[in-house]
DNA sequence: ACGCAAATATGCGTGGTGCGCAATTTTATG
DNA sequence: CATAAAATTGCGCACCACGCATATTTGCGT
């Protein structure tokens, strides 16, 4: 990867992290695009060259994570489908994988702030949009693996959609509970339940 | 239902239909809130008393449809869960159930216009948000039926999420195909596939 | 090492939008 | 019919997405 792309990825990351951090501290609409740009050391106009809204900047974290799932799926062509999916999903939600930055002044305040931000309607919408985008990639990966055609068959999209459903449900539950149930347990349960056809309990 | 609520529902319907119709005719961003309000016979300010964006006004149709699914689910407590779900979902997507208004000047132009509108990012986001809202209602219905607790158990949310996944996937495929495959077949296939645990083909 | 072309960042201007506030009209109730 | 509650309306403001023109940085061939 050349200097060009690295700088681009750098400012993108700086912008999205700044957006999340500031929003978690002050609340989403007490943060202006100007503030985020300043925190990332770029011009306000540049922010909109990368993201078209504050919500999108924040949701990028989720998008990247889910795109990594599709990537991981392609690296496990040997296992049975649902085993591969489980093993592709879980590592992306290990604590410490992404938050290993400097935004940890107080872990309690931090998670509370994040929870508040994620309740914001604008952010929720963007998270869903991110999930939809990732779904396409996952569907493509599943299609390759199973020899189905994304244009023709429902199957790959259905699997991808169900996986995202499991993730969203598990994460929603994770945010809802206090003290938080570990995400890994919720995710394995949810995926197993779906792979079992969601039988009535 | 009193006069008050009926008028309220009336203007809400008028606004959302006007929004969809105008957007399908001219394209979403060639329509200003002012135009929609005028077409519905209310003040521009009133539009924002009902919806906070054009996309939300349009997505209301989808939301209402999905809420009716939750309602229908509660009216079928006898059947096995997935039979009830299938029977609750299908009628809401019968052609002619909702479009029986006056917006049918040319069916070809109409569906093409709708397809264009649904490609708009703003609308997609709102559709996803509508799905998420409906999901909560469906989850509640499933929880009642299965004796699970939405606050505590993953199961009802997981089922609701999977149902919405099936609907979204089926509708996306329905819009993608030309000539369109009947939605009913896609929906039954998708729901059956999920109830079977999405086995690799 | 140098220079050219492409990609990227920036500044400015503009139309549109979401929403708070206060006044007015319409509806429900006793 | 009177009074309270709710909905609609008009006004106004702050914010934001985005197009366009310009300056700067990066990649690459020589």
Overall description:
The structure is a homodimer of 201-residue chains. Chain A has 201 residues and is mainly α. In chain A, 71% of the residues lie in helices and 0% in strands. Chain A has helices at 3-26, 33-40, 44-50, 54-74, 81-89, 107-119, 121-146, 155-176, 183-195. The longest helix of chain A has 26 residues, at 121-146. Chains A and B meet through helix 7, helix 8 and helix 9 of A and helix 7, helix 8 and helix 9 of B. The structure holds a DNA duplex (30 and 30 nucleotides).
Report a brief summary of the structure.
The structure is a homodimer of 201-residue chains. With 201 residues, chain A is mainly α.
Q: Indicate the mean pLDDT of chain A.
A: 93
Largest interface: A-B, 41 and 42 residues
CATH class of chain A: Mainly Alpha
**CATH-wise, what's the superfamily of chain A?**
Tetracycline Repressor, domain 2
Q: Number of helical runs of chain A?
A: 9
CATH-level-2 architecture of chain A? Orthogonal Bundle
Instruction: Please trace the helix and strand order of chain A, writing H or E for each element.
Output: HHHHHHHHH
- Tally of strands of chain A: 0
* Cα-to-Cα separation, first versus last residue of chain A: 50 Å
What fraction of residues of chain A sit in β-strands? Answer: under 5%
Q: Which fold name corresponds to the CATH topology of chain A? A: Tetracycline Repressor, domain 2
Portion of residues in helices of chain A?
A: over 70%
Whole-number count of domains of chain A: 1
The biggest sheet of chain A, with number of strands, parallel, antiparallel or mixed sense and barrel status, is: none
For this structure, the quaternary state is homodimer
Cα Rg of chain A: 18 Å
From the spread of the alpha carbons, the general shape of chain A counts as globular
Structural class of chain A: mainly alpha
The unreliable regions of chain A are none
């Amino acid at each position: 990867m050349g200097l060009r792309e690295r700088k681009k990825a750098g400012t993108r990351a700086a912008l999205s992290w700044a957006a999340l951090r500031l929003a978690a501290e002050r609340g989403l609409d007490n943060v202006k695009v100007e503030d985020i740009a300043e925190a990332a050391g770029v011009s306000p106009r540049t922010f909109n060259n990368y993201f078209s809204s504050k919500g999108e900047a924040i949701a990028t974290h989720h998008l990247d994570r889910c795109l990594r799932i599709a990537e991981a799926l392609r690296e496990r062509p040997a296992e049975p489908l649902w085993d591969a999916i489980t093993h592709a999903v879980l590592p992306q939600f290990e604590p410490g994988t992404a938050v290993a930055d400097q935004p940890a002044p107080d872990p309690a305040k931090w998670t509370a702030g994040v929870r508040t931000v994620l309740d914001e309607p604008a952010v929720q919408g963007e998270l869903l949009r991110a999930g939809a985008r990732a779904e396409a990639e996952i569907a493509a990966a599943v299609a390759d693996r199973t020899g189905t055609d994304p244009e023709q068959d429902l199957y790959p999209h259905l699997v991808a959609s169900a996986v995202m459903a499991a993730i969203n449900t598990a994460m929603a539950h994770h945010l809802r509970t206090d003290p938080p149930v570990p995400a890994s347990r919720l995710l394995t349960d949810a995926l197993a339940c779906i792979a079992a056809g969601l039988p009535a309990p």
